[in-house]
């Protein structure tokens, strides 16, 4: 049997499992809230792994190893920033957002939470935030489809477009039928596959080398990948050589983006209780740290693995983003290799599915619903959300047909957009009583516009757009809030109730948050 046949068998097994989870989720999804947020019943293990898998995407297995392979350890500043940002997100945002989103009108989307938190009757805040989600997630979903096309190019030697369509089709299918529950559980499975593969592949590659210790010297003195002058990359292991202070700041600033990523923080809203955030933080950070270490060693070991074996070529000769795929393909029996290589497919599909669901929900829950003359039934809302999933996928697919940027560049652009627009706002929503609707709208819009314009101009080459975007959004939100009328007393009272409920729930992990909210409203806690 040919290698391609074995790979196809592995992919079919994987796709079958994903569709089976989608069908199982479909049977458990009766209400619209179930389709959108799984009835707020997500356990911390699933929440942590699904958040991690949807967060990392193809960047972890393709973008990061490729960047480290070409440029060296100076690219690790991004990973460091992400680790710090992820920890802070689970620590400071997760428990409070879980409590507050339920108290604030039982909000099931980020735009609806913004509106309910500030009691914005104009609907402007909800509409603007929804439009930002739709614009930037379209780019984000497109980056996932680019990853899918390149995956099939490297694994099967097939056409880029064919691979992109296959990945998009399967992902849309299980998202379409199973909603949030399907997305979360498939993400948890996919996160497990990613983790195991990032451990197994570099270890096996290291064992094949005649001199494993050569991984620490090969890149700095021998040819490999893009270096053909006989001297390699002498500064490969330096985290400072060749990078400016602005570059380091910009890379670390990736961590700021966590506070504003709708597809990640929606997992916090779906937790069973705020107390689950502590366990979720431990699981999520352990998974992320070990996965990043694995991706780093894929690059380090890859310099010697490919450099010492001139007969083995990396398929992607530009950004070298396929080194993980190529390493797995060379090392293992085709069936095992195929199963390991599904890690990239898992990363790609987990992110696409999460983003598709958030975008479609925003279209229906936050735009269509507020303009509809009559309240649609639960069943109609589910059907409309499913239709929106397909529509968003089509638009993103059209953008991905002729990719002109690397995966890392596409992800970075969308990540900065959300981080700048929503990051400061989410933190202020949860921790500042004086926040006003005017300040929220002005700051969110400023952050999004500054990030977009900066990233599209030559300024983006000097400093990552997250930095000016986040800072400008934060400053404008605070200044405009202080210049406008204070929030209504009911808004401030609800803010205080949410803080108390978050503390009570953290101290009593077994306490049902719905009962706690009722007891609090009755003045009993």
TrEMBL record:
Compartments where found: Cell membrane
Superkingdom classification of source: Bacteria
Keyword annotations: Amino-acid transport, Cell membrane, Ion transport, Membrane, Sodium, Sodium transport, Symport, Transmembrane, Transmembrane helix, Transport
Transmembrane residue ranges: 6-24, 68-90, 124-143, 163-185, 192-209, 236-261, 282-306, 335-359, 380-401, 413-432, 439-456, 462-483
Protein family: Belongs to the sodium:solute symporter (SSF) (TC 2.A.21) family.
Gene name for this UniProt entry: putP
NCBIfam families, sorted: Na_Pro_sym, sss
Protein name per the record: Sodium/proline symporter
GO BP, sorted A to Z: proline transport
Taxonomic classification: Bacteria, Bacillati, Actinomycetota, Actinomycetes, Mycobacteriales
Keyword hit for Transmembrane: yes
